[in-house]
UniProtKB/TrEMBL annotation:
Removal of H(2)O(2), oxidation of toxic reductants, biosynthesis and degradation of lignin, suberization, auxin catabolism, response to environmental stresses such as wounding, pathogen attack and oxidative stress. These functions might be dependent on each isozyme/isoform in each plant tissue. Disulfide bonds join 29-108, 62-67, 114-309, 192-222. Residues 1-18 form the signal peptide. Binds 2 calcium ions per subunit. Binds 1 heme b (iron(II)-protoporphyrin IX) group per subunit. It is found in: Secreted. It comes from Trifolium subterraneum (Subterranean clover). This is Peroxidase.
Length: 316
């Protein structure tokens, strides 16, 4: 038994991640990472909400078919792609990826994958937003398949924690890492449709797991605009920090899954630890993001390097 697990850890695990390496483009496209950084910085200067957009995009891409940029493909006349579904839940930032890709193609045609661009751009924007600086191994290849139905596997904002845990475990992500990654809800927004089911205006009674002042505020927001949006972290809404965990301990989680993280026995200890120790969160977030970026990647001769992130390359 022991022998088997040693074989697993030393041979099978590294093989699963083979060919992703730090600085994969060092000789083939020396400027790749600095081009990404430059375009991301420029966008961030005028739009701080790009951080949330990229974090959510990276997660949705990686958790559907692996980090293969299948999410970026546009639908065609007879075929709907992964982004074209209810579960795409307003993922945005596609135009930023287009901008980066255009700049990179001009410097090094057909060399840098769209999936690496998502991972690198997300890393850069996290660092710009007060989060950790971390290294992202590269060498991902772009997928050849994108189907709208595939995205239906993503859980919703009312999914129970045990179901979430199972979903993440199936991708090799532990419960603690899952709690860390959901800390990405320290930036960005949720639209009324994703949380209005918790509000007293809909249920007819206060939700004991929501701060009454927050309930009142959200009722007002969604009454004036049913497509309104609330910051997921009500305190430091644009900063990648541990404030999200402090907020949910104060019953200020916007979506049910966020609030449940603080209440469920299997996750509440991680929440308290991250809430009281910002350094621990920052370190964990860096390593969890690196792990997220390795889920189901294509490497070597698999897939392709797309020229346009929104369309598969033409076959002759
Ligand atoms: C499976 C667990 C998760 C569920 C059910 C979930 C669900 C949601 C929902 C419903 C929204 C609101 C979208 C909208 O109203 O436009 C949202 C926003 C967001 N999610 Fe998650 N999420 C999950 C995990 C994650 C993870 C792991 C990350 C990143 C590592 C992430 C990053 C974000 C970000 C940054 C936003 C804000 C997006 C924006 O402002 O554009 N989420 N999430
Ligand atoms: C859509 O049309 C293209 C080109 O006509 C074809 O190659 C492809 O197989 C079609 N896809 C589906 C899902 O029908
Ligand atoms: C997301 O899905 C909805 C519903 O299917 C669709 O109307 C919308 O255009 C999609 N968004 C993107 C960016 O494709
Ligand atoms: C279209 O359909 C095929 C399967 O018939 C799929 O492999 C392909 O990725 C789909 N998506 C798009 C956007 O073409
Ligand atoms: C809100 O953020 C500030 C820092 O900007 C911090 O000092 C304060 O303790 C936070 N409050 C809560 C309730 O998290």
């Amino acid at each position: 038994m022991k022998k088997i697990s040693i074989i697993f850890f030393f041979f099978i695990l590294p093989l699963a991640f083979a060919d992703l390496q730090l600085g994969f483009y060092a000789s083939s496209c020396r400027k790749a990472e600095s081009i990404v950084q430059k375009v991301v910085q420029k966008r961030f200067n005028r739009d701080k909400s790009i951080t949330a957009a990229l974090l959510r995009m990276h997660f949705h891409d990686c958790f559907v078919r692996g980090c293969d940029a299948s999410l970026l493909i546009d639908s065609t006349k007879n075929n709907t792609s992964e982004k074209q579904t209810g579960a795409n839940a307003s993922v945005r930032g596609y135009d930023l990826i287009d901008d980066v890709k255009e700049a990179i193609e001009a410097a090094c045609p057909s060399t840098v994958s769209c999936s690496d661009i998502i991972a690198l751009a997300t890393r850069d924007v996290v660092a710009l937003s007060g989060g950790p600086k971390y290294n992202v191994p590269t060498g991902r290849r772009d997928g050849l398949v994108s189907n709208s139905v595939d995205a239906n596997i993503l859980p919703g904002p009312g999914s129970p924690i045990p179901q979430l845990t199972q979903f993440f475990a199936a991708k090799g992500i532990t419960t603690e890492e899952m709690v860390t990654l959901l800390g990405a809800h320290t930036v960005g927004v949720a639209h009324c449709g994703f949380f209005s089911g918790r509000l007293s205006s809909v249920t007819g009674r206060p939700d004991p797991t929501m701060d009454p002042a927050l309930d009142a505020k959200l009722v007002k927001l969604c009454k004036s605009n049913s497509n309104g949006a609330a910051f997921l972290d009500q305190n430091t809404s644009f900063v990648v920090d541990n404030a999200f965990y402090k907020q949910i301990l104060l019953k200020k989680g916007i979506m049910q899954i966020d609030q449940q993280l603080a209440l469920d026995k299997s996750t509440s200890t991680f929440v308290s630890n991250f809430a009281s120790n910002g350094d621990k969160f920052v370190k964990s977030f860096a390593s969890a993001m690196i792990k997220l970026g390795k889920v189901g990647v294509l490497v070597g001769k698999e897939g392709e390097i797309r020229k346009n992130c929104r369309a598969f390359n033409k076959r002759n």
